[in-house]
Input
Amino acid sequence: MGVAVYICHCGVNIAKTVDVKKVVEEIEKMPEVTICRDYQYMCSDPGQELVKKDINKYQPSSVVIAACSPRMHYPTFQGTLKEAKMNPYCLEMANIREQCSWVHEDKERATEKAISLVKSAVAKAALLEPLIENEVPVTPAALVIGGGIAGIQSALDIAEAGYKVYLVEREPSIGGHMAQFDKTFPTLDCAACILTPKMVDVARHPNIELRAYSEVEDISGYIGNFKVKIRKKPRYVSEEHCVACGDCATECRLADRIPNEFDHNLSKRSAIYVPFPQAVPLKYTIDPDRCLMITRGKCGKSPKCVDACSANAIDFEQKEEVEEVEVGTIVVATGYSEFDPAQKPELHFNDLGNVLTGLQFERIFAPNGPTSGELVINGKVPKKIAFASCTGSRDKRVGNPYCSRVCCMYIAKQAHLVKEHIPDADVSVYYCDVRAFGKGYEEFYERVQKEGVHYRRGLISEVYEEDGRVHVRGEDSLMAEPFDEGVDLLVLGTGIIPNADSNEMGQLLHISNSSDGFYLEAHPKLRPVDTVTDGIFLAGCAQGPKDIPDTVAQAGAAAAHVIDVLSKGKITIEPYNAVVDTDLCGGCRICESLCPFDAHHFNEEKGVMEINDTLCKGCGVCGAACPAGAISLNHFRDTQIFAQIGAVLND
Amino acid sequence: MSKPKIAFYWAGSCGGCEVAVVDLGEKIYDVVDAFDIVFWPVAIDTKYDDIRNLEDGEIEVCFFNGCIRNEENEEIARLLRQKSKVMIAFGSCSHLGGIPGLGNLSSRDETLDYVYRKTPVSGNEGGTMPCTTCVKDGNTIDLPALRTEVSALNDVVDVDYYIPGCPPPLPVIEGAVAALMNGELPRKGAVLSTEKTVCDECDKEKRKKMVGKARRIYDDDVDPSRCLLEQGIPCMGPATRGGCEAACPSANMPCTGCMGPPPASQEQGSRMVTAITSLIGVENEREATAEEVAEALASLRDPVGFFYMYSLPTSFLKRRYNDE
Output
């Protein structure tokens, strides 16, 4: 019986600032404490052995470990308790490292604080109850949201492991941004050559159900048992019949009149289109915002596409379809958007013809792009080209303080490609720092400099037009002199921003967004792929700016996490859930609308609230709001917390 | 053999609790049959000295209503505690401080100044103020001094049981008296009523709560079949112990919280504050902006009077702290 307490030195991390022996002396005096010891490294094998031996000898009702943050080692010591056949939830940790020794210098006062913290943990530990983990079966399927390289990689990895995957992509084709690239840095691999085979694999894989031109409308449920509503938008073209001959697009009355978003509006398309010739699925789609039949109800005497289609695939009667699928896990790979340079009026992006974004310039190089890969801007071959790095990144004025992590390298790659196309071109990069941090990146940056690309330190502060040329003005901070150069083409190193709907999507998924708008991982170092909602994982730029290697790595990691969950067939759920004391619940239903996880269910017959153990994530909102005090959070009951506070205040 | 003795006392209160006892009707005879009433200033002629002359613990049960507002209340509370085996705080004032407890929002001097000089009907041209000692015709008259703050009974003496309510509802009194006569009293410190909240006894239809701005009962059409709180009418029912059979909501008046906090609630007012503030913005399915929260809160009239109508002296807030 009683509480067994262990004080960790953490080498010198704790012992340097906290008099550990003194803490032991004080804690030993507490009536609740059966045994109190200290050790150099509690988390080490001998440290854990010490705890196990004591558990067998003294049979304590609970254990307190005073060491580092519970985020670090709570699971470690839970394992120790389990091995000693003790309920792993009869454990409390006092954080005397991060919250004490690391933040204080005065040893005497730090020791006093450590004693208070341990006393408080002991007071709570004495009131801990054994908790039983719940087990729920897992639906052996996964949902992957987003069909860019991240989603494609995750979907293929999961499908290869033998599980069904629903891959949902909102655009008519999968491929994402990577499909728009020409070459990839630093190896100059052709993006299409490495991406399109994977896209084809997705289409052919027996375990992958591709839902292109579809959006996730609703998600309910919890890890192992999500229910997902997928809304398939009407293409007005039968996917079954369309053979992608393209006759419809050629005949369309609006042929070559609609800006082609795949080429970032550098080319024109028809109202019926495929985004690019290698699209998967290779099926035509009618643009509902532009097609005359859909917007006006008539298109000449009869729609030309219908006449042209020998497969009779055009179907203006097509309606959207909502499908509900069940999955065990979800990968969020929704990607990113490109920063809109119009937000920086000094760049005059929309006014000047010879200013392009990074992705637009990418399309210029692409063989399937607006110029079929020829470096021609507005009919001319540019001889002098400037690149502006950090456009919309590391820029607090536009609200993006972060680094987009890819711009320095894609600028280097594009500069190289310019030199390859036009060896005598005068190419300058205006930068403030060059961040060439990846494998082979620094070497590539050096190579590009040797190829004659000038790097000038100083961001462009103003852009204007004179004599038909774009002028860039600013200050070269290395030479400490102003510059004002006329160029034929200015390429903006536009950064990565979260998608416009990332907040709504986050709410739909019950996952959080960090302050920059990207989805928040469960822990920045140790759980970079997990979200705070169990069973939902992140891959690619949805979590933050990333290059392709990192995206593919994270997508693989997300897939591994998915496979881990699916392969177990069942999952245990931490029992830190809210519980209703039905003897006290008056059925006012205040808690119900507050639950972010829809875990509350009102039992009309008994007039009391019930909480689903597996849906409840233990956030505690309902417990705080319950005016009757009828809801308490396992492991964080009011009595336990008041005991903790009391122990600190009694000193 | 003489019957066990009981006492009733009326401290700082309105007298409603005494009426609640009289409301027992003929059941009062069962009490008289079983007990000797040795002290009941409102009904029978007894003096403080009658109590002083008793042995300690000679009174079996004392029903004490009213808060501790002046020194006399406190003195008699201590005396009765000494002479009684079981001390019962009867009604909201002795249980929680009661409505007089809102007096803790003003200092003693502010209260006296207002009451004797500033009310529209004071008519005190000389500005005379009460004092504790007065000599008239060679005789000295002492008056009990007003305390600096209002307290509940258990702030000055040990209390065994609480009968809640303003005044305690008849079924609650009957239940308590029956328990007493049958010797079936629960553990010390218990509140002798039900454990669930008023909502449990309120038969209005309750749905998922979405509270926007606070309305008042006369503001608009109120659907009498539906939960008042859901319709924006501040109601303390969810944070209040039941036992009253939801008397007020049944008459389409919101609960004001007289039965006090339910057993697991540390603090009635703050519990209701967190409940109501949690709901602001819920209807929009997003976090409310600071302006929306401010607007919603501003629409709630007299927040202290709503959240702490009966429980201010026993709440964490306790009183407004002045320089005195």
Q: What stands out?
A: The mean pLDDT of chain A is 94.
